[in-house]
Amino acid sequence: MDLLAIIKAVILGLVEGLTEFAPVSSTGHMIIVDDMWLKSQELLGKYTANTFKVVIQLGSILAVVVIFRNRFIDLLGLKRFSRGSLEPVPDGQPPQIHTPGRLRLGQVLVGLIPAGVLGMLFEDYIDEYLFSTSTVLIGLVIGAIFMICADLFAPKRVKAQSVDQITYGQALGVGLIQCFSLWPGFSRSGSTISGGVLLGMSHRAAADFTFIMAVPIMAGASFISLLKNWQYFTMDALPFFIAGFISAFVFALLSMRFFLKLINRIKLLPFAIYRIVLAAFVYIIFF
Description:
This protein is mainly alpha-helical. The chain is built from 13 helices and no strands.
């Protein structure tokens, strides 16, 4: 595999890492960039290229594990931490005040089940028909409208200021809304943060819950995609995957900290506007 191919993998990793945690659809951005300029399908083949776009997100997921490592250790019952030490506190903001409760592993599992089941049932259909620029543009616009509605119609009284105050009902509601993110371009973080806000969470609590849920669901999606498309892999493709993985991890680590500082300040509207502008721009250029 030549240097140009590795550069393409690094660029896709950069796109993934910078957009995974913002509610703008990392998969949608990768599909648009790849279809318009990089053409990884010509290098890897359709199924391997589609699998790459899923597996590369493991780099971003590793960044979540690094940043939320105390939280995951706590969820697994391996060690208890004092409340307030589980996540980084944005600069300039006071430490979050927690109720006696704490996020439980059961709440995370409840949030995972709906999208996990639908993802397994429709994975072949999604791979075959929805990994295209045209479907991504639809997802970008509809997802943007949903995000605008979340900011406009969010309850005036926030019931969960922190992730430790989330109820099982809110977790299930977010899990059901997460099913929309199976459509490329809709955005997993966009759907779950918007859903959490509509269900009475603060933007930061919804974002934290989104990132925690992303680890098992993306790890599972990557494993299933690898298992189903294993026969299409060759050792020649391995450097492409490794370069993309490392690139996604590094840029996700940088962008995630920035996003967590930003989300409570600017809410969802600026991201929604960006999505609509991007969709219009790509439609004019691509079609």
